[in-house]
Structures are given as C-alpha cells and as structure tokens.
Design goal:
Length: about 280
C-alpha cells in the first residue's frame, strides 16, 4: 500500500511502454520490505530538462534513464560519478537532499552476467561502440586484465575511436576490427552490443557464424528474444552462450543497491523480469 511516506523512483525514456523495469523494481521493493513505488515516464527529448527539474522539485528519490536520454541527461545533473563520466552515459540517478548524481550500472550488469567466466588473459571482442558497448568495454578494461579488447563494427573510424580511448585510459591492448575481419582475430569471448538479433532484426547475426568456435564465450546483450539467432548458432557450435537477461537484472540490481544501500534480491528480480518479458515482450531497460 502506498502512503504519504512512500518513496518514488521512476524511469525516464522515450519510448518506455515496453520496459520491464517497473516490474523488476516493484518486485525488489516488495521482497526487501522497502516502502517505495516505481513508475515509467515517457519524456520527449525537448522536455528532459524540465522533467529532471520536476523530479528534484517533487522529491523523487531516484530514476533510471533509457534511450534516448543516457547522454543528454548528464548536463541536467549536479554531478556524474567517475565511471559514468568516462563512459559518457548515465543510466541511474540518485537524488538526495535535492542533489542529483548520475551513475552507469550497465558495465557492472555485464560483469555480473559474465561472472564465473575468465576474462583475464583472454581476447575479448565487442561488437558495437555505442553506449552499452562503451560501458561493457570500460568495465572489462578497468577490472579484468584481458589480453586484448577488439572493437568491431561497421564504421572503422568509430571502432578506432573507442579502441584508442580504451588504450589511453586503461593501458590495455585494444584494436579495431571490421566485422568481416573478426574471424582472423580469434577472440575467446564475443560480446554483441548491437541491436542485431532483437526485433525487427531477429533473423540477423551481427557476425558470420564462422567466427564462432567451440568453447568460446558468446554474450549477447539483447534479451528479447531470450535466445537470439547468434546464441542459437553459438550453442550449436559448442560455445558458452549467455543472454542479455542477466545483464538487465544485474544493472537493475546495482541501481537498487545505489538507491537503497540494501543487497538486491537478485532471484526475485530475475523472476520478475522473466515473467514480464513473457507477458508483454520488452525492448528497453
Ligand atoms: P546505441 O548506443 O544506439 O549503440 C548501438 C550500436 O549498434 C552502435 O555501435 C551501432 O553502430 C550498432 N548498430 C546499430 N545497428 C546496426 C546494424 N544494423 N549493423 C551493425 N551495427 C549496428 O545502443 P546501446 O544503448 O549501446 O544498445 C545496444 C544494444 O544493447 C541494444 O540491443 C540494447 O537493447 C542492448 N542493451 C542491453 C542491456 C541489458 O541490460 N541487457 C543494457 C543496455 C543495452 P553504428 O553507429 O555503426 O550504427
């Protein structure tokens, strides 16, 4: 039951109607006995500044940020935490005493999804150089000591830009590669951070199936469908296939912990995400 003491958290994005974050956080608050509610607000880009000011004025305790506001929101915040500043995108904001601080938990979500898989001393290929790719790459480069990070995408200049940034910031060996040239790089771990595999691209693979080798870890950030074409092919080739759901839950768990200071109820959050995706389909965190 909501009361006059109930804290409010929300999602700000456009669109938001397919997001499963309300279900994930509502279940987490219930499981931990936190008196809080979570709503999704569709905010067009032209209203973002007003929305953030309104959130502060209303005393809303925190919010998630999704497409297309992850970069634009930063200029409306009082502070951006170190990793989010380096990544250049914010997906979680905590508001305390009227002060808004931005964080990025996508990288931590990805590391949670990859936990138990050795990344140190291995060649990790990341497909894409957008917001999620940057978060994943920065988290791996800063904490996992990979032998090499290969950034692959259809625009060589953008792939080179991210590879150079990783090298400069973390001293990690990082190289750009075309999507066609990836097979020659022989990655041990392959991470898809492009939307290929989700609707309307469900029949598409971000790389040729020849790149896949037995024993390779293949992690697809796409979580709807739960098994993308890439993951289906990876399983058929004897790879270790990991879907995007664990990252979705992991980034939400990290947000919950930032907001509440309580260990996130991962199992409950995962079940809520699975149920919500089954019922309504999801396309945004
Ligand atoms: P983004 O910032 O828009 O980046 C998209 C990336 O995909 C860019 O590198 C883009 O390259 C590339 N791309 C787009 N269309 C492509 C195509 N047809 N062929 C090849 N490359 C293409 O998006 P994002 O926020 O990083 O999200 C990327 C994916 O990760 C989405 O599917 C999103 O749902 C998923 N994601 C999942 C989670 C999770 O928790 N599981 C969290 C965040 C994101 P160009 O610049 O060349 O177009």
């Amino acid at each position: 039951m909501t009361t006059s003491r109930t804290r409010l958290f929300c999602l700000v994005g456009d669109p938001v109607d397919h997001s499963v974050s309300p279900e994930i956080f509502t279940r987490a608050f219930e499981a931990c006995g936190v008196d809080a509610a979570y709503l999704a607000f569709r905010v067009p880009s032209r209203c973002l500044g007003e929305a953030v000011a309104g959130i502060r004025a209303l005393g809303i305790s925190g919010f998630n940020v999704t497409i297309p506001h992850k970069i634009a929101v930063m200029r409306h915040l009082d502070a951006v935490e170190g990793a989010a500043k380096e990544i250049g995108a914010v997906n979680v904001v905590k508001v305390e005493g009227g002060r808004s601080v931005g964080y990025n938990t996508d990288g931590e979500g990805a590391l949670r999804a990859l936990s138990g898989r050795r990344l140190s001393g291995r060649r990790v290929a990341i497909l894409g150089y957008g917001g999620a790719a940057r978060a994943v790459a920065f988290s791996i480069a800063s904490s996992q000591r990979p032998e090499e990070i290969i950034i692959s995408g259809r625009d060589p200049a953008k792939a080179m830009g991210l590879a150079q940034r990783l090298g400069a910031l973390f001293g990690v060996k990082s190289t750009p590669s075309s999507l066609d040239g990836l097979g020659k790089a022989l990655p041990d771990v392959l991470i898809n951070a492009t939307p290929l595999g989700m609707a309307p691209w469900v029949e598409e693979m971000p790389v040729d199936r020849d790149v896949l080798r037995e024993g390779m870890v293949v992690f697809d950030l796409v979580y709807n469908p739960a098994e993308t074409k890439l993951l289906g092919e990876a399983k058929a080739k004897g790879c270790i296939a990991i879907g995007g759901l664990e990252m979705l839950v992991g980034q939400a768990a990290a947000a919950f912990e930032i907001w509440t200071g309580i260990d996130a109820p991962l199992g409950e959050m995962r079940r809520a995400a699975e149920e919500a995706l089954k019922v309504r389909g999801g396309s945004g965190a």
